[in-house]
Amino acid sequence: MRSTLTAGRFWLVHCLCAVAVTSCASTALRTEPSSAEYSLSPDALAAHVAWLSSDDLAGREPGTEGDKDTTAYLVSQFRALGAVPLAAPDYRQSFEISLDEATVQTANVVATVRGTREPERYVLFIAHHDGQGLCAESNDRICNSAVDNASGTAVLIEMARQVAARPLPISIIFLASGAEEEGLLGAKAFIEDPPVPLAQIEAAFGLDTVAARGYSDTVGILGEGLTSLDPLVRRAAARSGRHVDTAEGTADFYRRSDHAVFADAGVPAIMVTGLFAPGEDKFVTGAYAANHYHRPSDEAGPTIDYRGAAADGALLLEIAALVADAETPPRWTENSIYQRP
What is the pLDDT of residues 310-324, one digit of tens each? Predict the structure, then answer.
């Protein structure tokens, strides 16, 4: 199903969507087993994705008007829910990239919710807000990039809403990165000019293509065995009525998303999601990867099941809470090729 917003209605729909999403989040009911601490609304995620993947944004390619409207939407959402800017007063961390033989400007949007007990400690969540832009030579040229990665961006917003309402003992960074599809460039820009010392970021968690699969009581760890986070993931999953079982072949995807840039900088970084649990519909072999990934058909509609993405976001917040209470910060395992400087 296509979403069409005329330019004259752009900011009106923007405002109405923000109000609607806030309402959805405040009345969310659990649809899957989870702990008592956090709950994300699938309906709220769907509302964000419908907006972010509308044709008016033309696939959110870096440097375009759609890209600028996307960052404006993110700023308005973070500001409204109570997350404060971190990289700059307007939330944006701007940077330039080379694209199609031209230099264009795009931006990360960076927000934080300060910790109540140890605000100098951080856990970071990252989702890229850019998409594929005009990517096809057909009647429908727009790769609306609904699942990849409007869905991860939507989860990031709703996780921030949860934390703003119930802050953790440590600070949480919500990084909506730009230009991931051009080579993880937004994450690299953050690492090159971090708003807080990287040594204070204890762990980074990626959110990418999270709505490619519905709910599963099993989650996989992308980066399993690389960090000391695995036991915390298993503990949080058990508290949420889920368990960990990572699909074969998952490790091949570790370098393909923004979290890998944090790993290169020494920050323990993983993804935790039902996307990489075993099964015929896992990301590696499922219908989304085969039929919609980086194609015009990756667009918002009733066929996207957001229950898994909502459960994954809640689980990640449970993991962050365990990191906050741990006696020692996460570390790389001895056999990992990644280590702190």
Answer: 999 999 999 999 999
